[in-house]
Amino acid sequence: MRIALDAMGSDARPVPDVEGAVMAARAYGLTVVLVGDENKLKSELAKHDTRGLDLPIVHAPSDIGMTEHVDAVKTKKDASMNIAMRLVREKQADAFVTAGNTGAAMAAAIAGPYLLGRIKGIKRPALTATIPTAVGRTLLLDIGANADVKPEYLYQFAMMGAAYAQKVMGVANPRVMLLSNGEEEGKGPLVVREAYALLKKSPLNFIGNAEGRDIPKGSADVIVTDGFTGNVAIKLSESLARTLVGFIRDEIKKRPLAVAGAALAKPAFDALRSRLDPAEYGGGILLGVDGVVIIGHGSSNAVAIKNAIRVAKEAVEGNVVELIRAGVA
Amino acid sequence: MRIALDAMGSDARPVPDVEGAVMAARAYGLTVVLVGDENKLKSELAKHDTRGLDLPIVHAPSDIGMTEHVDAVKTKKDASMNIAMRLVREKQADAFVTAGNTGAAMAAAIAGPYLLGRIKGIKRPALTATIPTAVGRTLLLDIGANADVKPEYLYQFAMMGAAYAQKVMGVANPRVMLLSNGEEEGKGPLVVREAYALLKKSPLNFIGNAEGRDIPKGSADVIVTDGFTGNVAIKLSESLARTLVGFIRDEIKKRPLAVAGAALAKPAFDALRSRLDPAEYGGGILLGVDGVVIIGHGSSNAVAIKNAIRVAKEAVEGNVVELIRAGVA
């Protein structure tokens, strides 16, 4: 299997990108094509032991910054993100991975010079996040591809999310919920109420409306919402977790005995951090495009890049794209 | 000042309701009119030392349960919530407080048999929550009154929220943000982009779009959104905070040394709990109705009831209703 990695993606590009690629090539025995500035990537690769690993470099003379407008995808045709996408488009790679600008990555897949395009019949692709919950993991989608949605889009998000949960997350009969502002049928804005009706008569294992509280509780395997609400929910969750850890630190620092206690409890906090660490989940898949596209966090470290590549591998092995194609047909 | 308390509001009615009323009457020197089953309230009041306090009882033969449909407000005209609202409507009380069914309380204020109605010119009332942040408190609205909104509603929510932040939260020139899925102007669904344009040319101290992460960070004094997204955000926040504390407990329990450490650190955790405790914030005000209406959490304890009454008192003293009336005019 060949994974095309935008090696100029992360905030600390290309350091964690290259290290993560080396780790993934070794761990999973696959080829990781590093796309970016050839000289930089060569000198970065030289820092690692790459004996026996397949890590070819494909040169891309430019890259797209985190704060650049998504239109950069169209003006910078030779950006690493576009070149990596081209490898997938031309079947020289099985999947695309980046830790770069999320909006630009989505644009590269949907509307860039080397776009993969949508799977036939899919109205709108959706970006996903895998969220750690009290009992496991939940797939939340859309988290930012579509600020405005129609009921049919939400229905398709549910179908795509269920396919992914089944094939990649290994859930036999994924429980699907629709995010709303109340449990009961009939709660929510018009678009949600209409989506409820579509989901209710679908073959999916639709178990009703989720409320905000159901996301951390892990009440469902897949929770469907529009890209506006999903984006607010995911950014709120990440920020709140950090704020709470900060609160705890503040309160501990005020108390000498608590400081001693916290030192003893540190392994427990480390375990918590790893449980919440976005690096463990690698990246979110952009479902609905005609190819495997994984978009990780800009703050990704090498482990996060390695895990994003693992997610790509699992999506390829799970034939997620074909499953969605069959689901629409 | 006279506060009409739906004493049959909370999950554990009327125990915390009555105790909170006693605490508030003593702390703030005001009259709390207890509305509910006269016999129950009398025997509950008898458990407390009420010498020198003014705690009249107004009988209401029925009440509305937490899981009842909001239409119960119309069929149960003599429910405690309706009778308490009538006292405000008939100027026998200055404010209404309940820890009961949120939907029913809003319906009682807006469409019940003793409705207060909207302030002239206000399109839609909005329910608020005061959220503890990394740096203080933020007022979030709407958190559930309006699942579908128009740009003009969001604009009015901002105006009402700013008036409340100024008069009740004591913020001189409240910073107002609009919740969206990106910082930049032009991000978000159409309704948000249009509301942005309205806010930008308003006299409010509008500082731009907020993202989900800005809620816990406390980037603004007032964050405005629709009642769907706000409801998801508030329920997600409460649940995530609980889930994280549960995660920490799980990880500590696995480790004997960590258990010892946690015992030493306990006062710090207790302080955290009090910092996050919804009881500290009492209840949210329903802005835009022609009277002061405070709706607390069903799980309110006596301290939460006391604080909800304090919020009512502050809203009356701050002339919030008049300020909004003047703002619309």
The name CATH uses for the topology of the largest domain in chain A is: Isopropylmalate Dehydrogenase
* CATH classification class of the largest domain in chain A: Alpha Beta
The protein's oligomeric status is: homodimer
The total count of strands of chain A amounts to 11
Largest interface: A-B, 64 and 63 residues
Q: How many whole angstroms does the radius of gyration of chain A measure? A: 20 Å
Q: Could you say which structural class the secondary elements and strand pairing of chain A correspond to?
A: alpha/beta
Describe the structure.
2 copies of one chain form a homodimer. By secondary structure, chain A is of the alpha/beta class. Chain A folds into 2 domains: 1-122 and 281-329, 3-Layer(aba) Sandwich (Isopropylmalate Dehydrogenase); 124-254, Isopropylmalate Dehydrogenase. The first copy, chain A, is 46% helix and 16% strand. The first copy, chain A, is built from 12 helices and 11 strands. The first copy, chain A, has helices at residues 15-28, 38-45, 72-75, 80-89, 102-110, 151-167, 190-200, 214-217, 227-253, 256-276, 302-317, 320-328, and strands spanning 2-6, 31-36, 57-59, 95-98, 126-132, 137-141, 176-179, 206-210, 222-224, 283-287, 292-296. In chain A, helix 1 packs across helix 11, helix 6 (151-167) crosses helix 7 and helix 9 (227-253) packs antiparallel against helix 10 (256-276). The longest helix of chain A has 27 residues, at 227-253. In chain A, 60% of the residues are buried. Chains A and B meet through helix 8, helix 9 and helix 10 of A and helix 8, helix 9 and helix 10 of B.
